[in-house]
Design brief:
The chain is mainly alpha-helical. It has 22 helices and no strands. It has two domains: 373 residues, no CATH class; 73 residues, no CATH class.
């Protein structure tokens, strides 16, 4: 199969990239979409239960790294401390959300610049990517929640784009490469679930992207940049626990309760942080009042998770397959705009009622309830776009990965590996949630468009080929 996006674009070809009115219009719509998502998602609840943990770590930092200052939840090693630093710098919610959306816009600009200047991508595909980004309410809704996931997602995509730019330009050690490593390192300070992604990328890079002798020095320098930003966190955790940690202390709880995806599993476990079985395991081992998110409990639960996999490998396989299907069909986080209609579950009920009316009698709905109809239309559009982009991306992923690997298309592999890594870690160690997929939504969008182009050209060649 002919993959034509694996070479650098010459200056003359680069000049033919979309410019002028099209780019300006797309950017105006993109900024408007970010502002609209920020306004519509202003009542979002998101991961509100974790806010107290962020505040605890912020208090610990403010108190000179005294763990006793964690008075709300008492766990100064969960979650990662990146968002707590952001809370200290921007105590009010709205400046943080504006910052998150601004960073998301910068990431889109960076990714589009890499696509336009680096690889040989079809003009129509690049235009389609620009237009889809301009209407990407799911991406900006994801950035309009006071949580660490938006910043971590932006930094992950930025790191991938910069690495792709460096590989495409065949740089040994240059600013895109250094910037990529730093971006991944900072992202790991916000969420530790991408901790191993740089190692995976470096392995693929060394094996396929460049000659090994040439890649060795660049890989080493890049990995240093990716993990050096985690040293302060490691020193912080050693001061608190006596152990130099690179991640937060919740992986054991997440992995263990992920078995709750399987109905009637042997342990009766459920997907809940307050799961009785998990609490009972922890308290039997460490006594009443033991906290599952402490370092000791986290290590115990990680060991217990491995035991559970050995006890019931069929159940674990069922869990992995179920989560994989849920990721395929679940789309990405599309916002909580319905909370503007009514709080809590009442908002969902209002949305379902209003959606039926909007789809069956659109003119009447717009005339009688214009505000509600607008909110419902935005929520419907965001949800459908998120599901479509993710579904198409996963469907073409085997094709695009095989094509990129066969062509040694280094820049494209740099964009595909984070998608695969994110999907694999969720399937193997967690449960499906649209917000997990949202972290790499821009990469899904690029893959969906480029992969559709590959599939279309493949089918067109077969149709034109004489019997």
């Amino acid at each position: 199969m002919d993959v034509h996006f694996d070479q650098a674009v010459s200056p003359k070809e680069s000049d033919r990239r979309p410019k002028g009115p099209l780019v300006l219009v797309c950017w105006c719509i993109t900024i408007a979409a970010a502002a609209l998502a920020l306004a519509l998602n202003r009542e979002s609840e998101g991961q509100s239960g974790v806010t107290a943990y962020f505040l605890d770590i912020a208090d610990v930092i403010r108190a000179g790294f005294d763990p006793a200052a964690a008075s709300r939840r008492g766990i100064p090693t969960f979650p990662m401390w990146g968002y707590s630093w952001l809370m200290l710098a921007m105590p009010d919610r709205w400046p943080r959300l504006v910052f998150q959306n601004a960073l998301a816009l910068v990431v889109i600009a960076l990714l589009l610049r890499m696509l336009a200047n680096g690889p040989r991508m079809d003009q129509k595909e690049l235009t389609a990517i620009r237009i889809l980004f301009a209407f990407s309410l799911p991406w900006f809704a994801f950035q309009s929640v006071p949580w660490e996931q938006g910043v971590a997602g932006s930094l992950t995509v930025a790191g991938s784009a910069l690495l792709a730019a460096s590989v495409s330009a065949r740089h040994r050690i240059a600013w895109p490469l250094v910037g990529s490593g730093i971006a991944f390192g900072l992202a790991s300070n916000f969420r530790s679930d991408i901790l191993l992604l740089p190692l995976v990328l470096a392995s693929v890079w060394a094996l396929s992207l460049l000659p090994r002798r040439r890649a060795a020095g660049a890989c080493a320098a890049w990995l240093v940049c990716a993990y050096l930003p985690l040293v302060p966190w490691g020193l912080y955790t050693r001061n608190i626990t006596g152990q130099f940690l690179l991640s937060s202390t919740n992986s054991g709880q997440v992995s263990t309760i992920s078995f709750g995806v399987v109905p009637d599993n042997p342990w009766g476990i459920t997907v809940s942080d307050e799961d009785p079985h998990l609490r009972r395991m922890v308290e039997e081992r460490f006594g009443p009042g033991a906290r599952p998110l402490s370092l000791e409990c986290d290590r115990f639960l990680n060991a217990r998770f491995r035991e559970m996999v050995k006890e019931a490998p069929g159940v674990y396989l069922h869990k992995v397959l179920s989560v994989s299907v849920q990721q395929l069909l679940g789309g990405a986080y599309s916002g909580e705009f319905v909370l503007l209609l009514a709080p809590g579950e009442a908002g969902t009920d209002e949305y379902l009622r209003g959606r039926a009316e909007l789809l069956t009698r659109p003119l009447k709905s717009l005339r009688t309830h214009p505000r509600e109809a607008g909110i419902i239309a935005a929520q419907l559009f965001s949800g459908l776009l998120a599901k479509l982009v993710v579904l198409v991306s996963f469907c073409v992923l085997p094709l695009t990965f095989w094509s990129a690997w066969r062509a040694r298309s280094g820049w494209y592999l740099c964009l595909l590996i984070p998608i695969l890594y994110k999907a694999a870690t969720v399937s193997l160690l967690a449960w499906a949630q649209p917000r997990f997929t949202s972290a790499v939504y821009p990469l899904h969008l690029v893959n969906a468009v480029a992969g559709s182009g590959i599939a279309f050209r493949f089918l067109a060649d077969r149709v034109r080929r004489p019997a």
